[in-house]
């Protein structure tokens, strides 16, 4: 019961951390989407674009007041769902709200 009350208070007091996650392809992984965008940009701009890599940007808010706990939870989310560990790297920037 005590844990439930603590979680309830966190929710209503708006104690949370915000994370900005940048997911990029690992070096050496082919990027067909990036190549398609580069080709289109070169057609528009007379071949001045040398390379394009496409990634993802994700913002998450978690109900945690401890930065280490929040980062561990977000890292777990990235490892299991948000990024493919075989082909992608990710960077977490944690911001207190």
TrEMBL record:
InterPro entries listed in its UniProt record: PurS (IPR003850), PurS-like_sf (IPR036604)
Keywords: ATP-binding, Cytoplasm, Ligase, Nucleotide-binding, Purine biosynthesis
EC number: 6.3.5.3
Keyword ATP-binding: yes
Species in which this protein is naturally found: hydrothermal vent metagenome
GO BP: any one term: purine nucleotide biosynthetic process
Pfam families per record: PurS
Gene3D superfamilies: Phosphoribosylformylglycinamidine synthase subunit PurS
Molecular functions per Gene Ontology: ATP binding; phosphoribosylformylglycinamidine synthase activity
Name of the molecule in the record: Phosphoribosylformylglycinamidine synthase, PurS subunit
This protein's record includes keyword Transport: no
């Amino acid at each position: 019961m005590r844990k439930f009350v603590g979680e309830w208070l966190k929710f209503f007091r708006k104690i949370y951390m915000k994370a900005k996650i940048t997911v990029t392809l690992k070096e050496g992984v082919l990027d067909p989407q990036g190549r398609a965008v580069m080709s289109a940009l070169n057609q528009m701009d007379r071949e001045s674009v040398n390379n394009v890599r496409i990634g993802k940007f994700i913002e998450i808010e978690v109900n945690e007041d401890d930065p280490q706990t929040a980062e561990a939870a977000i890292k777990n989310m990235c490892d299991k769902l948000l990024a493919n560990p075989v082909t992608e790297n990710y960077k977490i920037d944690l911001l207190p709200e």
